[in-house]
């Protein structure tokens, strides 16, 4: 008695009818009559039943083979593909077991009988492959033999810059022997993916010809192969034009067969096989070449991947060493703030800076906020959140922070925000620097500058009074130093006294402007004030002048005050001459002497302030370009220590990439009607020209304008900020590298692991595997699948942290049906456990991503089953409310410890110790679950007590976009 044979024979009509119904809708069956679909199916099922009942007798096997050939030949005539034909036998393997779905276990066929059925269907599919492609069992065995040889010769790793000829030539030799060819050449693409370079060749009498290149986009035979999905044949290779032969080396090949290496949808290279005689290339040879090239692609892909990993590891070690040395040399503390979880991690520098060990920093942003000085806290919090919620990429602030001893240090804190595709801040990396000493110095400078400013205000008041005096006094001149002592300023009353216009006096030498004073010692007196820098007061000095134009000269007595005008470096640039008649001499002298003292004290305090903060200064005439630079600024910019340097000459010392920015900032400051404020950070190149001589300066200045709106004076200061800039760059580079490395490694590892999984699946279908080999393949498959899950988690983690969130593709979905389906799939992996599903009996519909929601459910159910005692149930509940759908996963057992519960959804967190090592992961599952739920606009919570057990609750709004708008 054989149950399978009985069921097939008793339900023959049912099987044929269901077969026609299932295949009628397929494209390969369109336009066929039912008889053309059925063909030999009834007879074939009868002989399959006979073999199941009586065994594979020669007569039955011969009949089965004849019926299969008749059916497959009919499929060939109606245009079906190999895949169409094999799918029909796969369908039979699904229809027959459905016959006993509703039977009791005792009435179902035994596993041995079921294996007999499936074995016949697999042989039928092999028959399809043979008739469609002409690929026999002998061909497959030969293929396996050469693939093993490729495996044995495969290099473990290859690096991009390595000369791979010697290491890859043995692999090319195997291909030549397998195809019985005269030779072959292997080309791999360069880093740009355009040029292909010959890395190995093989053939009798062929010697390596160096690194030959060929354009993969060009008209050559190799270029056409690189762009073709199928193998290309060139039947006559003799006498090829140079453009077609580009890159090829062997001269004696008559027929060429080429195929590209195309792993993961990207061009890796081209393999060109040559035959000495002109010959057609049969389909079996092309198929064999495809198999060899696909296998060779996998070998090279794995070797190049390991090469890149080795190179990345070396770069990582170098970067880690550089970062460690930089951290040791710097007093900065680098921090990393996950804006989605509020977790903050600190580098070891926090101990040197503030006295805290990294484990004492609290782990969240609230610890940092709580130690900011109360007077600074609101301002700092408001500022940093304004940057995070806005569009800026950088935040910086100075505030007081409490150290471990309870005191406060003044810190400069700088952070850079990483945003997702929607512009939301997801991460912030920064560096905290102790600037207490510098702040105290700058505070002293600010105090001195404030004093100087106060003095200048007072001076302005005095100058205002002086202005009134100048208009009242009969004589008021401003004389600039020079060989002729040129008159720069003269009040209108002078014109009245001497009977001449202002144009005849201004910008002229003193003796030319006032020839009446010749011989009265005025020039000698001016030279004395210019030389000594001391003011001079002359009481009741007679001056000869004419009261009216053309009138006779007469002596008039005046009180004269000669006040030197000092430049930024303390030198005398001019002299202010004020004269009043003797009736007002006392008051004029007192005011002028007070003005002289005020100006002198103001200039002195300003010079002291600049020296105290090691800050350079300048004073420029924007109209003439004449410039004055102090010694500190000359050293910072790299200017000569002595001699005159114009503004245009000084600009040549500014970095060429920043020069336009500095010129633009100065032009805006000099615009009439503006504030006159100048602020610009820029680089300078000190003599030597290498990177070590490059410095960053922060310039601040003010332009003063004449009454007519023209700029009269441009003064300012500069501070060296090179070290601060370098610290900020180091923090950004390290943060970017960490996330980039995780993304690269996880993405590149997934492809070879997928190939391993597919390979083991194919091996398990082979009959020739014994029990020991089958167990080994199953272990490999289980390990590879676990690695694939880890890689998938790492990719999702990278997307969530670096790419700004896990993407979802929402569509209309019945959550109740999906929950049942996922529960059934999980139950297969835990057949001994009780997994219950509770629903309200109606659909819970909404706009969700089915694959991502399935990932959430699989993870939560898997965790519940792993972390709960055997013999206890795990329950999945689905509820629907007007606003959202609710998923609950509950399990019994020990509660989650409180310290773990607080950080359960953070990355790199795992469950309780002691779990089976084969089931462990990288600790990203719940972090990814939370990101998927948040991407749908939902929430996830967990409660865990000894009495009630552990429950994860997911709330998903029906309309994710609507939820986002409400949020």
Largest β sheet strand count, sense and barrel closure: 6 strands, antiparallel
Oligomer: single chain
Overall structural domain count: 7
The fourth-level CATH homologous superfamily of the largest domain is PAS domain
The general outline is elongated
| CATH fold name of the largest domain | Beta-Lactamase
Percent in strands: 15-25%
Proper CATH architecture of the largest domain: 2-Layer Sandwich
Radius of gyration: 45 Å
Count of DSSP helices? Answer: 30
Distance between the termini: 68 Å
Give unreliable regions as ranges.
205-209, 325-331, 598-613, 912-920, 961-967
Mean pLDDT: 77
DSSP summary, beta strand count: 28
Structural class determined from secondary elements: alpha+beta
Helix content class: 40-55%
CATH class of the largest domain: Alpha Beta
Spatial strand order of the main sheet: 3-2-1-6-5-4
Topology:
Layout: H1 3-10, H2 12-24, H3 34-38, H4 41-54, H5 58-77, H6 82-95, H7 111-133, H8 137-153, H9 165-179, E1 183-189, E2 195-203, E3 213-215, H10 221-226, E4 232-234, H11 242-245, E5 255-261, E6 269-275, H12 283-329, E7 333-338, E8 343-346, H13 349-354, H14 365-370, H15 374-389, E9 394-402, E10 408-419, E11 425-434, H16 436-472, E12 475-480, E13 486-490, H17 492-498, H18 510-513, H19 522-532, E14 536-546, E15 553-566, E16 572-581, H20 585-612, E17 616-620, E18 627-629, H21 631-637, H22 647-651, H23 659-669, E19 677-685, E20 694-705, E21 711-720, H24 722-764, H25 771-801, E22 811-814, H26 815-829, E23 835-839, E24 845-848, H27 850-866, E25 874-880, E26 884-891, H28 898-901, H29 925-935, E27 939-945, E28 949-957, H30 960-966
Helix pairs in contact: 1-4, 2-6, 4-5, 4-7, 5-7, 6-7, 8-9, 8-12, 12-24, 16-20, 24-25, 25-29, 26-27, 27-29
């Amino acid at each position: 008695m054989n149950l399978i044979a009985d069921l097939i024979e008793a339900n023959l009509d049912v099987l044929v009818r269901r077969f026609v119904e299932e295949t009628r809708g397929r494209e390969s069956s369109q336009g066929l009559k039912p008889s053309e679909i059925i063909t030999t199916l009834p007879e074939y099922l009868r002989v399959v039943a006979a073999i199941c009942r009586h065994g594979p007798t020669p007569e039955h096997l011969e009949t089965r083979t004849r019926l299969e050939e008749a059916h497959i030949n009919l499929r060939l005539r109606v245009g079906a593909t190999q895949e169409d034909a094999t799918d029909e036998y796969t369908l039979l393997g699904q229809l027959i077991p459905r016959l006993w779905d509703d039977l009791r276990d005792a009435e179902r066929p035994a596993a041995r009988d079921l294996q007999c059925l499936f074995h016949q269907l697999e042989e039928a599919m092999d028959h399809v492959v043979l008739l469609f492609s002409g690929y026999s069992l002998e061909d497959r065995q030969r293929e396996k033999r050469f693939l093993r040889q490729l495996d044995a010769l495969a290099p473990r790793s290859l690096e991009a810059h390595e000369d791979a000829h010697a290491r890859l030539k043995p692999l090319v030799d195997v291909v030549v022997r397998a195809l019985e060819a005269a030779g072959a050449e292997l080309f791999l693409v360069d880093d740009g993916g355009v040029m292909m370079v010959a890395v190995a060749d093989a053939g009798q009498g062929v010697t390596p010809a160096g690194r030959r290149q060929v354009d993969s986009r060009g008209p050559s035979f190799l270029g056409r192969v690189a762009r073709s999905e199928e193998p290309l044949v060139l039947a006559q290779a003799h006498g090829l034009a140079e453009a077609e032969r580009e890159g090829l080396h062997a001269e004696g090949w008559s027929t060429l067969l080429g195929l590209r290496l195309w792993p993961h949808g990207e061009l890796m290279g081209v393999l060109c096989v040559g035959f000495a005689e002109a010959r057609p290339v049969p389909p079996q040879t092309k198929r064999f070449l495809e198999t060899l090239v696909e296998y060779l692609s996998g070998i090279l892909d794995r070797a190049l991947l390991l090469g890149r990993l080795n190179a990345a590891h070396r770069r990582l070690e170098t970067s880690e060493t550089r970062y460690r040395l930089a951290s040791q040399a710097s007093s900065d503390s680098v921090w990393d703030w996950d804006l989605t979880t509020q977790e903050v991690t600190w580098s070891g520098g926090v101990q040197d800076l503030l006295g805290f060990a990294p484990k004492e920093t609290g782990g969240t942003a609230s610890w940092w906020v709580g130690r900011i000085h109360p007077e600074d806290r609101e301002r700092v919090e408001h500022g940093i959140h304004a940057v995070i919620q806005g569009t800026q990429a950088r935040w910086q602030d100075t505030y007081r922070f409490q150290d471990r001893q309870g005191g406060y240090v003044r810190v400069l804190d700088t952070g850079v925000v990483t945003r997702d595709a929607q512009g939301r801040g997801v991460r912030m990396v920064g560096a905290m620097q102790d600037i207490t000493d510098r702040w105290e110095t700058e505070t002293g400078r600010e105090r001195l500058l404030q004093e100087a400013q106060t003095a200048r205000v007072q001076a302005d008041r005095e100058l205002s009074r002086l202005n009134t005096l100048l208009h009242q006094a009969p004589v008021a001149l401003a004389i600039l130093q020079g060989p002729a002592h040129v008159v720069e300023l003269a009040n209108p009353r002078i014109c009245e006294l001497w009977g001449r216009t202002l144009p005849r006096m201004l910008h002229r030498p003193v003796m030319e402007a006032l020839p009446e004073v010749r011989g009265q010692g005025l020039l000698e007196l001016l030279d004395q004030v210019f030389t000594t820098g001391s003011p001079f007061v002359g009481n009741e000095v007679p001056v000869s002048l004419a009261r009216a134009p053309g009138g006779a000269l007469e002596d008039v007595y005046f009180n004269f005050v000669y006040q030197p005008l000092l430049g930024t470096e303390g030198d005398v640039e001019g002299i202010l001459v004020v004269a009043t008649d003797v009736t007002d001499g006392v008051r004029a002298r007192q005011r002028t002497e007070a003005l002289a003292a005020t100006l002198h004290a103001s200039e002195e305090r300003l010079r002291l302030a600049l020296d105290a903060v090691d800050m350079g200064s300048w004073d420029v005439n924007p109209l003439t370009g004449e410039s004055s630079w102090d010694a500190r600024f000359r050293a910072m910019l790299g200017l000569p220590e002595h001699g005159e340097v114009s503004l245009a000459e000084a600009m040549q010392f500014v970095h060429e990439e920043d020069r336009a920015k500095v010129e633009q900032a100065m032009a805006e400051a000099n615009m009439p009607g503006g504030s006159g404020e100048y602020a610009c950070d820029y680089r300078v190149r000190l003599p030597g020209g290498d990177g070590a001589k490059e410095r960053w300066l922060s310039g601040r200045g003010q332009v003063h304008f004449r009454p007519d709106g023209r700029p009269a004076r441009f003064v300012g200061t500069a501070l060296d900020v090179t070290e601060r800039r370098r610290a900020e760059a180091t923090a950004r580079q390290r943060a970017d590298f960490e996330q980039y490395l995780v993304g690269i490694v996880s993405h590149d590892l997934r492809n070879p692991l997928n190939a391993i999984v597919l390979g083991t699946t194919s091996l398990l279908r082979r009959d020739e595997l014994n029990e020991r080999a089958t167990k080994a393949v199953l272990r490999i498959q289980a390990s590879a699948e676990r690695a694939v899950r880890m890689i998938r988690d790492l990719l999702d983690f990278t997307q969530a942290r670096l790419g700004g969130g896990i993407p979802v593709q929402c569509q209309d979905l019945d959550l109740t049906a999906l929950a049942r389906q996922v529960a059934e799939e999980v139950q297969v992996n835990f057949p001994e456990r009780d997994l219950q599903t509770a629903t309200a009996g109606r659909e819970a519909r909404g706009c969700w991503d089915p694959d991502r929601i399935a990932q959430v459910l699989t993870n939560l159910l898997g965790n519940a089953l792993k972390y709960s005692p055997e013999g206890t149930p795990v329950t999945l509940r689905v509820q629907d409310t007007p606003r959202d759908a609710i998923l609950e996963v509950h399990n019994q057992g020990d509660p989650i410890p409180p310290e773990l519960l607080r950080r359960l959804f953070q990355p790199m967190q795992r469950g309780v110790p002691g779990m089976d090592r084969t089931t462990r992961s990288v600790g990203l599952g719940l972090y990814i679950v939370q990101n998927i739920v948040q991407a749908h606009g939902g929430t996830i919570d967990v409660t865990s007590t000894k009495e009630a057990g552990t429950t994860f609750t997911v709330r998903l709004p029906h309309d994710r976009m609507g939820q986002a708008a409400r949020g």
